């Protein structure tokens, strides 16, 4: 199963962790990553103008932890590096609506694309 298929099919909750220039960690609940092209090595998130996005301006590394709903401890951990960003409000609005994201149109300012450096299971090294 590809990462795209996994995130389309599995229900759960995700947390995106970032750090600022002084290595202070922030975690935030985030929707599942979006795969906007055929490349399973790149995922994207729509972001508001908040601490998570600000941290990425100072440190492009991030970690996404996804915990599957259900019994036990299953999920994925993604190590991410910021690639490019997009600022087109109409494109962001269309993607947000297609993916039913909870942020308002006014909050959705950035479409941030990440290169996936590593994928690990929720527990263990895989």
Task: Explain how this protein is built.
The protein is built from three helices and six strands; from the N terminus they run H-E-E-E-H-E-E-H-E. The chain is α+β, with helices and mostly antiparallel strands and 126 residues long. A six-stranded antiparallel β-sheet has the order 2-1-4-5-6-3. The radius of gyration is 14 Å and the shape is globular. The chain starts with a helix and ends in a 5-residue tail after the last strand.
In short:
The protein is an alpha+beta fold. The protein has a single domain (3-121), classed as Pnp Oxidase, Chain A (Roll). It has helices at 3-9, 51-58, 89-98; strands at 12-19, 25-30, 42-47, 61-68, 75-86, 110-121.
Give the end-to-end Cα distance, rounded to a whole number of Å. 15 Å
Tell me, what is the CATH class?
Mainly Beta
Largest sheet: 6 strands, antiparallel
Q: What is the average of the pLDDT values?
A: 93
Question: Biggest sheet: strands side by side, in what order?
Answer: 2-1-4-5-6-3
SSE topology sketch:
Blueprint: H1 3-9, E1 12-19, E2 25-30, E3 42-47, H2 51-58, E4 61-68, E5 75-86, H3 89-98, E6 110-121
Antiparallel strand pairs: 1-2, 1-4, 3-6, 4-5, 5-6
Keywords:
126 residues; alpha+beta; Pnp Oxidase, Chain A; 6-stranded antiparallel beta sheet; 20% helix
């Amino acid at each position: 199963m590809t990462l795209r298929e996994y995130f389309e099919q599995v229900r759960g909750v995700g947390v995106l962790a970032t750090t600022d220039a002084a290595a202070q960690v922030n975690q935030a609940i985030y929707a599942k990553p979006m795969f906007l092209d055929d490349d399973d090595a790149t995922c994207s998130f729509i972001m508001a103008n908040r601490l998570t996005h600000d941290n990425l301006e100072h440190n492009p590394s991030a970690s996404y932890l996804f915990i599957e709903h259900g019994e036990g401890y299953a999920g994925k951990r993604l190590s991410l590096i910021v690639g490019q960003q997009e600022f087109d409000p109409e494109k962001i609005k269309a993607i947000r609506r297609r993916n039913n994201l909870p942020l308002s149109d006014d909050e959705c300012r950035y479409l941030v694309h990440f290169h996936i450096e590593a994928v690990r299971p929720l527990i263990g090294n895989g």
